[in-house]
Fold this sequence. Notes:
globular, 10 strands, alpha/beta, two-stranded antiparallel sheet, six-stranded mixed beta sheet, disordered C terminus, single chain, 22% strand
Amino acid sequence: MSLESVKTHFKQWNRDMDVMEFQTSSATVHQAADTIGVIPARIAKTLSFRGAEETAILIVAAGDAKIDNKKFRQKFGFKARMLTPDEVLEQTGHAIGGVCPFGLKNNLEVYLDVSMKRFETLYPACGSSNSAIELSKDELFQFSFAREWIDVCKGWEEGEKPTKVMQQIEG
């Protein structure tokens, strides 16, 4: 049902036929990257947090980014607390592994993290653990009805963390 709600969502832009469905899982960033054939950073992951009220807020970030608790608190005024899998399903209508900012069960606030701005196109999930769509940054903003671009992540900036190759060389 979740995949169908996303396809219905994309019909308003005639993009429902662009939703890709895979034979293999795309439930995690690395599975999605392997399935699609891109680097993990180009997977647009949707993270679900408790909002100030009873509704969730969604933050879409690059696959290699992690929430920076200090930046999150500065932006929203409260501590970053992720939803449980049951709460995610209740709030978004999507199960973990297919969570995306499209075809949502409830009208939730969606924010896009600047970690994604370094790519021309990204691949968010489409409501199931084996789906995705390729979108430009502008399309992702438009189609998700995002409120704004924000900076609440870490770990993705060049030089911020050593790469695995460098760790193996130095280790």
